[in-house]
């Protein structure tokens, strides 16, 4: 009798969980996103789930979808070796269409704590732990070649990133999904708890999603990396990688209201567009230079 009761309870719990996932995925599929065509091959999507109707929470999601052809709209990195600059200022000084914050950095002293190479020049190298081990955000990379962006996974070697032939390499992570296979994430607080998130995903048709989820506010809870993985899948991505988040999470689009800040950065602990945090590097979307 006890075994039957335990089995029934487990089955009921699983059914509720599966129902929740199904309802959430359906919510995303049926969402009428607010769309703006920003430039050729670049579209902005926004929606505020304000009825606690995604993961049983309020969520404010903004993302760009970009054709990853290396033509018309191209990808680039903006980076500083030690200085920290807001995402919007990175975008403006690089005459970009749009920008999102990049990888993890030293808040006190500036500069990324992960390997960054821009135009063939190494800007920052990995800072390893006291045992010489990599952080999870050093086990994958976003790579740009001829204006097109891709995701690569660490091969386990100590000098992996230096052997990548591309001129532009930025380590980041954790990796969420690669080629339709979800990565295994541990249950640390960083992964399990809800925070503002920045993410890059790639769809089977090659289109790229640059996404922000706001958090740390009653208007938007943020997401765990487990929830973020599901969201990116529901948006059609078969590869996805997490970026630095929290107070760094910022999506900037040139010419938009509020000085181009689309989301609600949290560094000022207010629900407005003023709370940008200065960062070490960004992902840029730029118009292809005329030849």
Automatic annotation (TrEMBL):
InterPro entries: NAGPA. Residues 94-285 form the Phosphodiester glycosidase domain. One of its GO terms (molecular function) is hydrolase activity, acting on glycosyl bonds. Pfam families: NAGPA. Residues 1-20 form the signal peptide. It comes from the Bacteria. Keywords: Glycosidase, Hydrolase, Signal. PANTHER family: N-ACETYLGLUCOSAMINE-1-PHOSPHODIESTER ALPHA-N-ACETYLGLUCOSAMINIDASE. This is Phosphodiester glycosidase family protein. It comes from Pedobacter psychrodurus.
